[in-house]
Amino acid sequence: MSRKRLTLCPPRPIDLLLRSCPLFKFLSPRLRSVAIGLSILLLATAAPAQPNLEPALSAPRIVTLDWTIAETLMGMGVAPQAVAQLSAYHDWVAEPALPDTVVDLGLRTQPNLELLADLQPDLILISPMFSNLAPRLNRIAPVEQLELYIPGSDTWEQMLQLTRDAARLAGQPQAGERLIAQAESILLAHRQQLPTATRPLLIVQFMDARHVRVFGENGLYQAVLEQLELENAWPGQTNSWGFAMVGIEELLGIDAQLVVVEPAPLGVQAQLAESGLWQTLPDVQNDSVISLPPVWSFGALPSAIRFADVLTHALVARHAQ
Length: 321
Fold this sequence. Notes:
3 domains; 5-stranded parallel sheet; 41% helix; globular
């Protein structure tokens, strides 16, 4: 007959400790087993829980050159690792503000690629405006392009899609849906607050003392006006970004509430005070021009919310006068 070989487990440290005790040898085999078992049980319950050694999942480190993508990420509560031209972002976009931890990559069209490589991002998000940089950026990290203001498409629906795409890439799809729900709720509330007899709006932004961008079809401001059920007074064509560059004389004869969106180039306000052409406009003569703080006219849902906020408050205040 062959004998079965027994594999002996190495003695546990608690076994050795108990066996070294002088009283242990006087115990019966049964009591020795009970003592060892109780000691192991007490040691297990007293020991602290072992930490989870698996790495925690974290949001990807996202870099973007595009302010519209940056504001969309911030609107979802996802701070980008780095953004280009931070000071200009705060001048033109203003809100949502970027935290101090966000790194400035330099010019949007000429980002600091060495700094970008040092940051080791997981993902770089760009818009078609910066597609020429994609081959160089792709050597540093994967590049994804998010598009907005596509000619012939519904601007509001495009903003919703961009939000969902950015949320998916950030690993936060629910955050994207929350931002969409927030935008829809806020715009509905503003629509209900607006005066019933609001004049058509003529929305402009100064490029210099003689020329303005006037906003119409295809743009963010127009998309918000449609959501608020307000009328745009500009009768002319616009480019794919939703504006036309015109001289101030093109505004003459349009019966509308004049709305000026800041910022204006340095010195323009002083020049307008001396401009007979500007002073001819009825709202200028009546001191009834509505001035709005900066709102990124090429933005997405956060800028749409901001524009709806400031415009509604201004129209309600004007109606109350």
